[in-house]
Amino acid sequence: MAITIDSNVKESISLEEYLEFMEGSLDPLNQDQVLDSASKLKALANNQQFLAEKLNQELRNWRDFQPNNAYSAQTLTLGRAKSCFLRANMWAPLTKVENNHDWEKRLYAYSQPHDHNFSFLTVGYFGPGYKTVIYEYDPDSVSGYSGEKVNLRFLERTTLPQGKIMFYRASKDIHSQEPPEDFSISINLMIVSPEVSVRGQYWFDLDAGIIIRQVQNPASTRLMLCRLARYISNDETKDILNTIAKQHHFPNVRAAAYESLSFVESKDAYRIWRYAFDCDKSPLVKSIAEDALRNLSDSFT
Fold this sequence. Notes:
Elements: E1 3-5, H1 15-24, H2 31-36, H3 38-46, H4 50-60, E2 75-81, E3 84-91, H5 101-108, E4 120-126, E5 131-136, E6 153-159, E7 165-168, E8 173-178, E9 184-191, E10 202-205, E11 210-214, H6 218-228, H7 235-247, H8 251-264, H9 269-279, H10 283-300
Antiparallel strand pairs: 1-7, 2-3, 3-9, 4-7, 4-9, 5-6, 5-8, 10-11
Helix pairs in contact: 6-8, 7-8, 8-9, 8-10, 9-10
């Protein structure tokens, strides 16, 4: 389950000291080391000046503000090391203007149950913290298609107040966050393992116990490129799509490659999908191929 870590550390350290620890002493791909390092993150969180100092530094360079930050407006990147990076996330209550609630919920992913295809260590830095309900599931038991039933197990309802440390496990813990009572900040040590590019990440419907759809991530970019190839392609593109369809490690990407290949090679669409159904080991790809073959057969009758 998502792990709450008790720490009575009273000392505080600077951001520079923590980044030096990340770069020189921490193996972020060793989960035991990450868990043991919780006291270091707590010591950083005990420093109630470092974030203001970092913000001032960024504001002084406002023309080049956070050039490598690919996250939403709620996130401030604090530093990077091999296989990990540090960020601060802001969590705000919903405003009193109801017309703004939809986009505010989308910005903060409030009431949107999801997992992460990476692990992370988090500590409450400021404020009462967001509220969250946490479930777990077995990622090896799902294929990842929309509407797929998932065996969800309820773990807890909790919050992330100042000083509390939690560890979320990649592709196992599902959480649905709710707005905090007051403005809050969390500090996250994000683990970037090689598996990030091959694991799915999903939005869930907790009441129905199903996957809604895939979360946008690096694999989603590959899906977009495969789909773009339907409309802008040449003979070399077909060869590349064929290679991706047969060899890519991510089932969603293979399925997208088969779809685009069947589009640009429409005369061979049945053969392409037959191969996908017979040869691909992924239940997701087989399911999509089966639907495509059924639709093609119906079009012949």
